[in-house]
Every structure is written in structure tokens, then in C-alpha cells.
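User: ok so my PI wants both of these folded by tonight, can you help

Assistant: No problem, let's get them done. Here's the first:
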Amino acid sequence: MDLNKQPQRVSSGETDKDPQQLTSTQISIEPILQELLKKLASLEERVQQLENPQLMYKRPTCQEHEKLSDSLDYLHNNIEGIKIDLLKVAKAV
């Protein structure tokens, strides 16, 4: 199947041709159109994935991946907890 082949256009003067010939032309174009529809659907899916990226991270001690935003939230909360603990220790000394 050659997708680079230019489709033949039917000019207004050719509409009086044999309907069977037009039908055979339509039949020969159908596989090309089906292939193009598959490619278009694939491209739409890839664009959608690019619009909503899922950045994943796997901790060295874990088997499963998690969202990068969840990892950053976890780290932020731990750092905040460490800061609080350090202030308590500093006040106690």
C-alpha cells in the first residue's frame, strides 16, 4: 500500500462515468483510509500521553513505582519533621 500516492480526483465532467468504476475506485481507497485512521488514532493517543505525563520514581528499597509528586511530598514532609525535631533538640541543649 503506497500512502504517498496522490488520490485521484473526480472532476465534475467525470461524474457521468460508469458507477461501477467509481465503486471500484472507492473500494481501492478504503484500505488506505483505514490505515490512515489507525495512524491518526495512534497519534491522538500519543499526544494525549504527552499532555498528561506520568513521571514515576522507584525508591531503592521498593519494588513499585510511585508518582514523582508523591515522592516529593513525602520528602518535603520528612524534612519539615526533621526541622521541628532539630528545633526541639536545640532548645533542650
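One down. Here's the second:
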Amino acid sequence: MKGLWRGLAVGALCIGVTQVGVANAQAVEPIEHWNTSAVVDALQALKAQQVNATTSGGRVVVTARTLAGLNVGVYAKACDPTPPGVDAVCHGLEAIISFDPGSKADRKTLADRLNHDFAVGKFLDEPDGTIRLSRYLVFDGGITPANLRAELASLFAVGVLTGQNLWPETAKKPDTAKK
């Protein structure tokens, strides 16, 4: 009889946990396309400061300064064409952190080494002399706000490691976010 009650209690607990899980899952709407508020909320949840949403070239961009002092730009990407004055539906985002390694640095070699060391994004040798760390996300099927925060947190962590890699002796901070 004791085993029967234990089985019923475990079964009831499982049903209760499942119902709570389902209720919580239903409460979180997936992000199915660019949503400025969701990006701002994710950055603020990660304790970013100076969060600012604006437009650049007709597309939304959100800039911020991370808790570690990195400047980041988050850009709406893969946008459907629209007539002037109509908000475009954008199916992706690109988050960018730029670094200035100095004029004497072999930027192409540095970008290649960083791409080998860190797989969370793509490092690019930019014509303006910076190295850009880019992370692209697609909203196909929707992503949860928690996933958006996790993706941005991973990028920020690699940004910190990149700064330590580029300037180990001074722990110099990265440059501003670039397009």
C-alpha cells in the first residue's frame, strides 16, 4: 500500500510539474522577427547601460555598453522590402563588437587566429583598421527571450576574452561598435 501511495504521489508531482512547465512555456512568446523591445529587454537583463534604439540607413539599431565596458551594436537584418514609411519585418539580427588592435597589428592574422580560437561569431578585418566580432541570429520558428539573452551573453563573454587576448598587458577596452 505504501508503494501505491508513493507511486500516486510521484505521478501527481509529475503531472503538476508538467502543467507548471506548460503554463510557463505558454507565458513566454517566441520572438519570430526583429522586435526592438525584446532586444532592449535582453540587453537590460544583461545589465547593459546606455541602451539606445535608433535607426541607421532606414533600419533599427540598438546600441549599448555592456557590464564589462564593451560597446555593442545590434542591427535588424534580413528585412523584407517595404515602401518608405512602413516598418519592415526583419528576420534576423547582427550583434557587433569592434576592437582597435593598433596600427602596427597584422589585423588579418589576428582575425584568423581569433576565428580559430572562438567559434561563437566571426572576426573580420575591417577597412577602417578595426577587427569586428559579428554574431548573426535568425528568428526562424522563433527564439525565446532566454535564448536571445544567452546568445548575447555568449558574444559579450567572447568580447571580453578577445580584449584580454589583444591587450594582455593592459587589459585595454575595445573600441566603439561599428556597422
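Helices lie at 2-27, 36-45, 107-117, 145-166. The chain has two domains: 1-29, 31-166. Good luck tonight!
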